[in-house]
Amino acid sequence: MNTPHLTAALDLADRSVPVLPLRAGKVPFGNCPACRGNACGGRPNMKTPGPCDCPRPCHAWAAATTDPDVITGPAWAPVWKQAAAVAYHPGGIGLTVVDLDHADAVAWARRALPATRTVATTRGEHWIYLGAMPSVNAVRDGVDIKSTMVYARWLGPGTGTMTALPDAVQALIVKKPSPVRPVAVPVPTGGGECRHRIPAYLERGISMAEQRIAEAASGVHATVYRTFLAVLSAHGRCGCLTDAHASRLFAAAQAKGESSRHCVDAWSNARTALGM
């Protein structure tokens, strides 16, 4: 027997919206029996995919599907009676949700952002734009960006005409890099100019690193760390790498949603791994 949440999920899936059930507290169910109660080893709050023995990531946004056989299948059929809400993956259908968590955030959006489709929430509003972007929480007080690699609660179709994702929203995730720790490494003592100081050589290395981070479609944390490790391995021991270069890498990482603290930690961990 269909429940209201199951009926809503099937209706959304029929319109190509990837969905998943949520239990109380906005927490998703796993989409296979092995994931019940986090038994497969996923992250504790199950809001992001974690290590798992399943054929594919099966938690949270990664579980969202339009397949009615999955939605009504043996893994999910029992949970719809317990489900507290339906969630969907905005980025999976090319949308961005600006989640405004309180009245002050809503007032700010009305001043700063172009009007678009809005959906009332328990404490504020969801403003939905046409276009996907990286997801970042707390871009300002009471404002989260939900698009790729996250889920949002389905609270109804909302009102108003959906407009294209504006620069003003995309600019919210571009943060000024925080000051980086100096790369205190010895300058070669063998005489002669370090080959890395050739402008084209060093510039190409930094540009390739920025591009690698920018093109990361998933596993951004790991990509940032590996990229920092590669840059420091190639350019960090001869004294040619400057704070300006590191700041460019931090800016690329923050544009993908990384926090300043994570950038500093990843940089420090890479230096430690290299014995620097």
Description of the structure:
This protein is of the alpha+beta class. Helices cover 32% and strands 14% of the residues. It contains 8 helices and 9 strands. The protein has a 5-stranded antiparallel beta sheet with strand order 5-6-4-8-7. Strands 2-1-3-9 form a 4-stranded antiparallel beta sheet. β7 (136-140) and β8 form a beta hairpin. The longest helix has 16 residues, at 199-214.
Descriptive labels:
single chain, 276 residues, alpha+beta, five-stranded antiparallel beta sheet, four-stranded antiparallel beta sheet, 8 helices, elongated
Question: Which helices and strands, and how do they pair?
Answer:
Layout: H1 4-14, E1 19-23, E2 27-28, H2 68-71, E3 85-88, E4 95-100, H3 103-112, E5 117-120, E6 125-130, E7 136-140, E8 143-146, E9 152-153, H4 167-170, H5 199-214, H6 220-235, H7 243-255, H8 260-273
Antiparallel strand pairs: 1-2, 1-3, 3-9, 4-6, 4-8, 5-6, 7-8
Helix pairs in contact: 5-6, 5-7, 6-8
**Main sheet overview:** 5 strands, antiparallel
| Unreliable residue runs | 41-51, 177-192
Going by helix content, strand content and strand pairing, the class is alpha+beta
Output the helix-strand order.
Answer: HEEHEEHEEEEEHHHHH
Mean pLDDT across all residues, rounded?
80
Number of helices: 8
Oligomerization status of the protein chains = single chain
Strand residue content: 5-15%
What Rg is obtained from the alpha carbons, in whole angstroms?
Answer: 22 Å
End-to-end Cα distance, whole Å, is 62 Å
Spatial strand order of the main sheet? 5-6-4-8-7
Helix-residue proportion: 25-40%
Beta-strand segment tally: 9
Overall form: elongated
